Amino acid sequence: MKYSVGGVITGKKAHACGGNTWTVVRTGADIKLKCNTCGRCIFVSTEQADKITKTYKEAENKQ
């Protein structure tokens, strides 16, 4: 799957804080995700991101 900065990932499992939505902060070889509930940032590989993603919503372009 192709991820872009600003996109929102809904995970299959909840984070330790109880939230399951993540915002894509950085892309590349690894993807940096920020939890929308507690603000924790994590790095995951693209394969791992594909594995944990339940739904993905593209960022809305504001131009």
Protein described:
The chain is mostly beta strands and 63 residues long. The chain has one domain: SH3 type barrels (Roll). 11% of the residues lie in helices and 41% in strands. The protein has 1 helix and 5 strands; from the N terminus they run ββββαβ. A 5-stranded antiparallel beta sheet has the order 4-3-2-1-5, with helices on one face. A hairpin with a 3-residue loop joins β2 (21-26) and β3 (30-35). The chain is globular and about 25 Å long. The model has no long low-confidence stretch (mean pLDDT 92).
Strand order of the largest sheet: 4-3-2-1-5
Oligomer: single chain
Sheet with the most strands, sense and barrel status: 5 strands, antiparallel
Gap between N and C termini: 25 Å
SS class: mainly beta
Number of domains: 1
Beta-sheet strand percentage?
35-45%
The pLDDT mean sits at: 92
pLDDT < 50 stretches: none
CA-based shape? globular
- What's the helix-strand series? EEEEHE
Can you name the CATH architecture? Roll
CATH top level class name: Mainly Beta
Q: What is the count of DSSP helices, taking H or I runs of 4+ residues?
A: 1
Offer a concise description of the structure.
This protein has one helix and five strands.
From the structure above, extract its key features.
63 residues; mainly beta; SH3 type barrels; five-stranded antiparallel beta sheet; 1 helix; 5 strands; 11% helix; globular
How is this fold's topology laid out?
Blueprint: E1 8-11, E2 21-26, E3 30-35, E4 41-45, H1 46-52, E5 53-57
Antiparallel strand pairs: 1-2, 1-5, 2-3, 3-4
